[in-house]
């Protein structure tokens, strides 16, 4: 063979040369084997790393709808004008300007030099060397010039855009622009976000040919009803993290994405958000996009249909705002379907605007939202500790009647106050007089309920409270779901040294070691109304794919989920129901202002004293009610912090809510059947 | 000494070698096409496309090679000194700023002749081989004379230093193995060569130590980029302790830029794997990671290696070994020392190019602008390689049968 012949040559010199060359080629082959075969994988990886960028593409977020399909949160296209740094026209514009600037820079820095020896020699023969020469720019100078040119070209484009849109536009943040160019070149640089229709029209009609400028569309979250049901719907916050389950772990680029911060947006975030997709973008050495492949497809978020009725919600919120109380009103209203536990409305005041959170919450607004005194973010219908006041007398009555302690017809002579031992007497707005059960209930006589509360004992009252599931979470899908306080043995052992009769007296009138939320009170009231069924309150009807047809299961409506059955006779319930009716219908009832024509409302007022540092600070006032008396459908609980009294502040609000409910049931018969009109 | 093992062949054209050349040219056209594919398409007419021009140079080169074969190499070598001095003049001219052009690379290597530029250093290699073979073919006794040895050294030093002055370290370096091998084969006493080797080795070591480790005021004045290339090759940091943070950052940035070509070449070669990504499918070049200015000339091998993988690399090296070893066979069959020296000189020159260029693609060698014979884009290089092959064939054609 050719090579071996040469390696065995007789001529020693040529043999050595052959060996040297053969060895050299062998070294190359071994080197190539090492690089191309042994270590190939790592180079393939390097190559992939430098030429692919992964891009996270958020999924369209699901809508939040009310029970009739009214959108409370949905997505609208939002238009913005962006500068595409990949666009050839922009790059050409920059390149052109750069050449001009570089020539100018070189000219201005051209240097004179001494002729070289050779040139001096040659100049005797008429050779004329060029002694000034434009200086060559260093790499650093070139880079700096490039940055400068890119920025000036871009700010010029932005200025022209401003002229076309007839509004002053200036590119201000050079650092941001540079950072975008360096790190996120494959994405457009946003010049103007959230265009209004005027700007869109202008941009379109000018059909501008500004280099690299184009309009882009991105879905943004909108809340068509504004602040309506803000505490239920919740709000969003910026979120570019990709650590969510099932997603590719790290991305080079993110498109703006959000996650729920509060309300349903937060608690059902996983369903609403869907799953972000991932794209692999093949880029060249300058970072410009060459092609794209989809690594994982987008899974659109699901629509959530709430049990809320937007119209009733609107009325409830209006009533809270308008109520006769300390401003700004701090209060809550809950409307519950007593048969199914559906929450028809859940209002809390003061409220916040979820629109403030998109695209980004400003720090001033954040400061007002976190003001601890007003606390607009707090959903007062489920979160917070409120004395139930006299509304708790319903529970005392349940326990005492069921235990046989109270004889409903027996007259109790009240002195108008109640005094135990040497303690300060407990006042009474009902005044002195003779009270049977019904009168004591509708006049809300403190001495009567203290007397029988003491007789039946704290344990029986607490036991009844436990069956109503006070002191426990209601299980609604909201993070703001507080337990409240019920002085069970457990609770007493953990929080108190012991229990005294004075504590039982407070308990009997809904004060002291007791706290409930309006929703808990609504569940309890519904239990009285519906014959003793303690229901799980429900907030959602369905979650289904955005493009799904109407699910027949949701058409059938929401099934009640029974949590507990009260151990009370229907006799007892009837007595209480009648007393609650009397509270609004009798002329001496405390809840008379909740009365609705042709709609028999049953209710109980409550006015609890809230003390701070041993002094009366304000009243927490209540009206817990249901209607209609004959065929109970709704429980409405209105609570106000800083109210005047339950009868004055809350009862009128409840009355108006019932009017709205009555109107709804009469005018939208299809809605009364719990059907969901899906959009 | 000359065992006549093989029968004299009828045809004295070394067809096997020409076949190897043809294979290399095929590779050259195909991969220059692939390497320049990503360049702005449709902006240049077809006849200015790199692969067309390269083909044209192949034809011109083959003609020149054939022309070289018209006259007996002994007659040619009578003019060897003239050729030598002509190339020396060209090397001087190229240093003159208004004559030599830099192509923006900081080194003055090209003479502009209107439609094309030529690189005198390429032709200097041919002139040198002719003249040096001519010089060394004198009777062996004269080579034992120290004065003649010094003359020989002078013959090497003149073009070497002129090319160093351009500066073109890579082309200059080629003179060392070529002259050394020619002296060795030509019969210069080993004692001289040992001393020479020792001296040159010592100089190189001193030079490297000086450049890499000596404090700045003691260092030889090198062009900045040359020094940086050496630092990159020896894996030394640009930044040192005395620098301010800003300087250090700039130095590190510079280092990334400078090691960029080599790293990208390595990634190209390595990501080719066993069988490669396929012709025209190389991404490193298409996406511009492998700089487009060098992909089709100095780094053409990494394009081949990426697209054809290890298999392609083996084929390229096999083709080169056919050319080189047929060259050695020609040297062995030469019937006089002149022919043998010419053949050896040409083979060594080609082998050095191949080793340095491919070695640079896999970081075995520092980056120097040494083209890969016949594969790299470039008229001067192609022309010289084919003239050199012409000389080999000439030696084969006109060997006298004793």
Detailed description of the structure:
The complex is a heterodimer of chains A (679) and B (402). The relative contact order of chain A is 0.11. Chain A has 24 helices and 23 strands. Chain A has 679 residues and is α+β, with helices and mostly antiparallel strands. Among the domains of chain A are: 77-109 and 135-216, no CATH class; 310-363 and 379-672, DD-peptidase/beta-lactamase superfamily (Beta-lactamase), CATH 3.40.710. Chain A is elongated. In chain A, a hairpin with a 5-residue loop joins strand 14 (325-337) and strand 15. In chain B, helix 1 (15-36) runs antiparallel to helix 14 (300-333), helix 11 packs across helix 14 and helix 14 (300-333) packs antiparallel against helix 15 (337-361). By secondary structure, chain B is mostly helical. In chain B, strand 2 (110-113) and strand 3 form a beta hairpin. Chain B contains 16 helices and 3 strands. Chain B has helices at residues 15-36, 50-68, 73-78, 80-94, 120-136, 140-143, 146-165, 169-186, 190-213, 224-233, 245-272, 283-286, 292-295, 300-333, 337-361, 379-397; strands at 100-101, 110-113, 116-118. In chain B, 46% of the residues are buried. In chain B, 67% of the residues lie in helices and 2% in strands. Chain B is globular and about 65 Å long. At the A-B interface, helix 1, helix 2, helix 3 and helix 5 of A face helix 8, helix 11, helix 14 and helix 15 of B.
Secondary structure topology:
The complex is a heterodimer of chains A (679) and B (402).
Chain A: H1 2-7, H2 12-38, H3 40-51, E1 52-57, E2 64-65, E3 71-83, H4 88-108, E4 111-112, H5 117-123, E5 132-133, H6 139-165, H7 174-183, E6 189-192, H8 197-206, E7 213-222, H9 230-233, E8 235-238, E9 253-254, E10 258-262, H10 263-267, H11 269-273, E11 277-283, E12 289-296, E13 302-306, H12 310-322, E14 325-337, E15 343-349, H13 363-369, H14 393-403, E16 412-414, E17 433-435, H15 437-443, H16 446-456, H17 458-467, H18 489-495, H19 501-508, H20 518-529, E18 533-535, E19 540-545, H21 552-555, E20 562-565, H22 570-585, E21 602-612, E22 615-627, E23 634-643, H23 646-667, H24 669-672
Parallel strand pairs in A: 1-9, 2-13
Antiparallel strand pairs in A: 1-11, 2-3, 3-6, 3-7, 4-5, 8-10, 11-12, 13-19, 14-15, 14-23, 16-17, 18-20, 21-22, 22-23
Helix pairs in contact in A: 4-6, 12-23, 14-16, 14-17, 15-22, 16-19
Chain B: H1 15-36, H2 50-68, H3 73-78, H4 80-94, E1 100-101, E2 110-113, E3 116-118, H5 120-136, H6 140-143, H7 146-165, H8 169-186, H9 190-213, H10 224-233, H11 245-272, H12 283-286, H13 292-295, H14 300-333, H15 337-361, H16 379-397
Antiparallel strand pairs in B: 1-2, 2-3
Helix pairs in contact in B: 1-2, 1-14, 2-16, 4-5, 4-7, 5-7, 5-8, 5-15, 5-16, 7-8, 8-15, 11-14, 14-15, 14-16, 15-16
């Amino acid at each position: 063979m050719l090579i071996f012949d040469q390696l065995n040559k007789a001529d020693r010199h040529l043999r050595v040369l052959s060996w040297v060359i053969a060895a050299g080629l062998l070294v190359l082959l071994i080197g190539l084997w090492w690089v191309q075969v042994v270590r190939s994988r790592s180079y393939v990886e390097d190559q992939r790393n430098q030429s692919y960028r992964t891009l996270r593409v958020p999924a369209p977020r699901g809508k939040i709808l009310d029970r009739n399909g009214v959108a409370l949160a949905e997505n609208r296209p939002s238009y913005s004008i962006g500068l595409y740094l990949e666009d050839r026209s922009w790059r050409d514009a920059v390149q052109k300007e750069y050449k001009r600037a570089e020539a100018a820079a070189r000219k201005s820095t051209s240097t004179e030099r001494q002729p070289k020896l050779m040139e001096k020699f040659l100049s005797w023969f008429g050779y004329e060397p060029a002694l000034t020469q434009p200086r060559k720019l260093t790499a650093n100078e070139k880079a700096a010039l490039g940055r400068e040119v890119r920025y000036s070209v871009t700010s010029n484009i932005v200025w022209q855009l401003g002229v076309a849109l007839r509004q002053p536009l200036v590119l201000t943040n050079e650092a941001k622009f540079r950072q975008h160019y360096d790190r996120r070149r494959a994405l457009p640089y946003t010049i103007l976000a959230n265009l209004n229709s005027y700007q869109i029209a202008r941009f379109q009609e000018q059909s501008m040919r500004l280099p690299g400028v184009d309009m882009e569309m991105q879905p943004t979250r909108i809340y068509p009803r504004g602040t309506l049901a803000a505490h239920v719907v919740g709000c969003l916050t910026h979120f570019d993290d990709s650590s969510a389950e099932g997603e590719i772990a790290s991305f080079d680029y993110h498109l703006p994405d959000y996650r729920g911060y509060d309300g349903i947006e937060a608690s059902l975030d996983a369903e609403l958000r869907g799953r972000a997709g991932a794209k692999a973008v093949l880029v060249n050495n300058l970072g410009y996009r060459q092609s794209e492949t989809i690594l994982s497809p987008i899974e659109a978020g699901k629509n959530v249909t709430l049990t809320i009725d937007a119209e009733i919600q609107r009325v409830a919120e209006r009533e809270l705002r308008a109520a006769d109380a300390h401003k700004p009103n701090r209060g809550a209203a809950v409307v519950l379907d007593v048969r199914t536990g559906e929450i028809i409305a859940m209002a809390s005041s003061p409220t916040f605007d979820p629109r403030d959170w998109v695209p980004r919450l400003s720090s001033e607004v954040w400061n007002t939202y976190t003001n601890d005194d007003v606390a607009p973010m707090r959903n007062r219908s489920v979160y917070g500790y409120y004395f139930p006041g006299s509304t708790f007398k319903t529970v005392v009555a349940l326990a005492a009647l069921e235990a046989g302690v109270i004889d409903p017809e027996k007259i109790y002579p009240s002195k108008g106050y109640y005094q135990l031992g040497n303690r300060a007497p407990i006042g009474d707005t009902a005044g002195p007089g003779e009270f049977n059960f019904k009168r004591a209930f509708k006049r809300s006589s403190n001495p009567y309920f203290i007397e029988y509360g003491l007789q039946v004992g704290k344990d029986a009252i607490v036991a009844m409270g436990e069956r109503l599931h006070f002191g426990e979470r209601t299980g609604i899908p909201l993070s703001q779901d507080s337990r409240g306080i019920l002085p069970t043995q457990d609770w007493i052992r953990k929080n108190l040294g012991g229990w005294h009769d004075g504590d039982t007296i407070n308990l009997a009138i809904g004060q002291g070691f007791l706290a409930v939320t309006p929703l808990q009170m609504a569940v309890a009231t519904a239990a009285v109304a519906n014959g003793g069924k303690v229901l799980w309150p429900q907030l959602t009807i369905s979650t289904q794919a955005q493009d799904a047809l109407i699910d027949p299961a949701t058409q059938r409506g929401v099934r009640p989920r029974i949590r507990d059955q009260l151990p009370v006779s229907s006799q007892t319930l009837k007595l209480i129901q009648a007393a609650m009716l009397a509270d609004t219908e009798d002329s001496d009832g405390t809840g008379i202002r909740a009365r609705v024509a042709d709609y028999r409302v049953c209710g109980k007022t409550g006015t609890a004293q809230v003390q701070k540092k041993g002094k009366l600070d304000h009243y927490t006032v209540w009206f817990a009610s249901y209607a209609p008396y004959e065929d109970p459908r709704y429980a409405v609980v209105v609570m106000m912090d800083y109210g005047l009294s339950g009868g004055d502040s809350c009862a009128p609000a409840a009355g108006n809510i019932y009017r709205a409910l009555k109107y709804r049931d009469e005018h939208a018969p299809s809605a009364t059947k719990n059907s969901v009109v899906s959009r | 000494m000359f065992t006549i093992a093989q029968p004299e062949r009828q045809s004295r054209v070394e067809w096997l070698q020409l076949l190897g050349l043809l294979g290399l040219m095929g590779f050259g056209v195909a991969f220059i096409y692939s390497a320049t594919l990503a360049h702005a398409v449709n902006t240049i007419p077809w006849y200015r496309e790199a692969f067309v021009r390269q083909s044209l140079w192949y034809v011109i080169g083959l003609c020149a090679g054939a022309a070289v074969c018209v006259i007996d190499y002994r007659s040619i070598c009578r003019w060897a000194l003239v050729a030598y001095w002509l190339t020396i003049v060209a090397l001087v001219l190229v240093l003159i700023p208004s004559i030599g052009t830099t192509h923006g690379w900081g080194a003055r290597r090209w003479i502009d002749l209107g439609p094309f530029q030529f690189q005198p250093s390429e032709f200097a290699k041919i002139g040198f081989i002719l003249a040096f073979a001519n010089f060394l073919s004198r009777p062996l006794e004269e080579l034992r004379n120290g004065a003649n040895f010094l003359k020989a050294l002078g013959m090497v030093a003149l073009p070497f230093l002129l090319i160093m002055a351009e500066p073109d370290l890579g082309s200059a370096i080629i003179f060392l193995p070529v002259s050394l091998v020619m002296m060795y084969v030509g019969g210069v006493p080993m004692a001289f060569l040992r001393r020479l080797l020792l001296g040159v080795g010592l100089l190189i070591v001193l030079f490297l130590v000086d450049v890499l480790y000596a404090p700045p005021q003691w260092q030889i004045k090198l062009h900045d980029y040359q020094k940086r290339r050496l630092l990159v090759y020896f894996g030394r940091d640009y930044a040192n302790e005395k620098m301010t943070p800003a300087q250090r950052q700039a130095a590190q940035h510079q280092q990334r830029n400078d090691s960029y070509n080599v790293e990208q070449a390595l990634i190209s070669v390595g990501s080719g794997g066993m069988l490669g990504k396929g012709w025209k499918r190389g991404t490193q070049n298409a996406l511009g990671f492998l700089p487009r200015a060098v992909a089709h000339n100095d780094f053409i091998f990494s394009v081949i290696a990426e697209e054809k993988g290890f298999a392609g690399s083996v084929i390229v090296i096999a083709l080169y070994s056919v050319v080189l070893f047929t060259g050695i066979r020609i040297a062995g069959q030469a019937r006089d020392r002149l022919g043998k020296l010419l053949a050896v000189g040409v083979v060594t020159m080609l082998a050095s190019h191949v080793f340095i260029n491919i070695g640079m693609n896999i970081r075995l060698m520092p980056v120097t602008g040494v083209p890969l014979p016949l594969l790299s884009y470039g008229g001067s290089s192609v022309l010289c390689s084919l003239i050199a092959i012409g000389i080999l064939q000439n030696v084969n054609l006109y060997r006298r049968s004793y």
